[in-house]
Amino acid sequence: MNNIVAAKKESVINYMKDIFNDVGNVTIFALRFFKEVVKPPYEMKEFIKQCYVIGYKSLPLVTITGFIMGLVLTLQSRPTLAKFGAESWLPSMVALSLIREIAPVITALICAGKVSSGIGAELGSMKVTEQIDAMEVSAINPYKYLVVTRILATTLMIPLLVIYADGIGILGGYVGINIHSDVNFHRYLAQVLESITFLDIFPATIKTFFFGFFIGMIGCYKGFNAANGTESVGKAANSAVVTASLTIFIIDMLAVQLTDLFF
After folding, report:
1. Which of 23, 33, 115, 192 lies at a 20 to 30 A Cα distance from 47?
2. Which InterPro entries match (predicted)?
3. How far apart are CA 170 and CA 192, in angstroms?
4. Domain residues of the chain, as ranges?
5. Exposed, middle or buried, 238 (CB in 10 Å: 0-12/13-18/19+)?
6. Which of 107, 118, 108, 112 is nearest to 62 (CA)?
7. Nearest Cα to Cα of residue 151 among 215, 56, 82
8. Residue 56, phi then psi, degrees to nearest 5
């Protein structure tokens, strides 16, 4: 019995050690990013390519998701508001819910699944096939070429995708309202704009930059540090998705607390 307890304690200690080691390694990895990002040469061609891959190629998925978010939120909220005769508040409620919380978090989670896993698998396969080592031998800085460009691209593209999802979600809300009633689009849009203030948009937009940064950082870290063997590529991609998704929820929780504190 004592041996079983001792073994469990040892496994817990080793697990905690692994977590702290990962946190330390990610911190060093991130500090290197801030060092490399300001040093020339700047890989603009690769950066633009990654913006296209991460941003433009994610538009169809974000469009469908954003429209469904607005449509479903409207349809689910309408019966409750109708009980109190407050259906006129529906456009304002949908817009505020989407902009403040739902669109940023859901879009970031989608990008964590699509982008972070893709980066982790891509860099992991390059590590396993020794392409990263070959770049170092060729006097190319693989960190600057592969990591910096991808993190910058996710940091820039995720906020733009969230803003796009906000607009598509509001459009979906308009369609949802008109399923049961007939509302003029100009009137609907006027109600939406009247309810939105700068303090609704600013904190929600700022946190999306952190979402994008950590989505790129975690994907690059997991792929760049993948172990040898093809099995590690799948593990890197899976671990990138799980870790990035958990990080998004933690950042969102902190952002909400800071917003309530300062705004």
Report:
1. 23
2. ABC_MlaE_roteobac, Permease_MalE
3. 8
4. 42-262
5. middle
6. 107
7. 215
8. -65, -45
Q: What angle do CA 144, 158, 90 make, to 5 degrees?
A: 170
Locate 163 and state its tokens. 């803003």
Q: Is 164 left (phi over 0), alpha (psi -120 to 50) or beta?
A: alpha
Q: Give the pair of three-digit tokens for residue 39.
A: 């040093």
The Cα 261–Cα 199 span in angstroms is 13
CB count within 10 Å of CB 176 equals 22
**Which stretches within the chain are classed as H helix?**
2-36, 44-54, 59-83, 90-97, 103-111, 117-128, 131-137, 142, 149-180, 185-195, 198-224, 231-262
Tell me if residue 255 falls in helix, strand or coil.
helix
Residue 133 token pair: 């080592």
Contacts (Cβ under 8 Å, ≥6 apart) of 180: 78
Tokens matching residue 213? 């940064």
Write down the residue that tokens 């504190």 correspond to. Answer: 261
pTM over 0.85: yes
What is the sign of the dihedral through the CA atoms of 133, 139, 141 and 142? negative
Q: What share of the chain is helix, strand, coil (3-state, %, to 5)?
A: 90, 0, 10
Instruction: Give the whole-angstrom CA distance, residue 33 versus residue 217.
Output: 9
